[in-house]
Amino acid sequence: NRSSVEDVFNISSIIFEKYAKIFIEIFGGNQYKRTSNQINPKLNTKNKSNKCSHQDLYSLLWTIYALAKTIYPLTINDLIASFHLLISSFFLLFMIIGIYF
To answer: What are the backbone angles phi and psi of residue 73, rounded to the nearest 5°?
Structure first.
């Protein structure tokens, strides 16, 4: 159904917009800004394999959220449930960071 696909897209757009704002508020930086080292890792002269960049965190967090949506498919059409799932993804990442750092 075209209407339901549009609804899902609208919800995803709203959630992604909120995600970007929350991410910048918490972690700072600009997730859209890429350095030459991020575009081409071979340009990086130092070995930074043990560090996680803003872009890595940004991608990881959105991937966690996307995977959670596959586990809880009923959240696809629900804006509030999708937002709660997004916040839960941030919380999970903070728990993981707290364990290892």
So the answer is: -65, -20
Residue 36 pLDDT > 50:
no
Q: What is the pLDDT of residues 39-53, one digit of tens each?
A: 455 555 555 566 778
Q: What is the largest CA-CA distance in the chain?
A: 51
The whole-model pTM stands at: 0.72
> Which residues fall within 8 angstroms of residue 13, CB to CB, at 6 or more apart?
none
Tell me how many domains the chain contains: 1
CA gyration radius, the chain: 16
Cα(58)–Cα(55) distance, integer angstroms: 5
28: left (phi over 0), alpha (psi -120 to 50) or beta: left
List the domain range (segments joined by +) for residue 9.
2-44+53-100
**For position 2, what pLDDT does the model report?**
83
Residue 70, SS3 per DSSP: helix
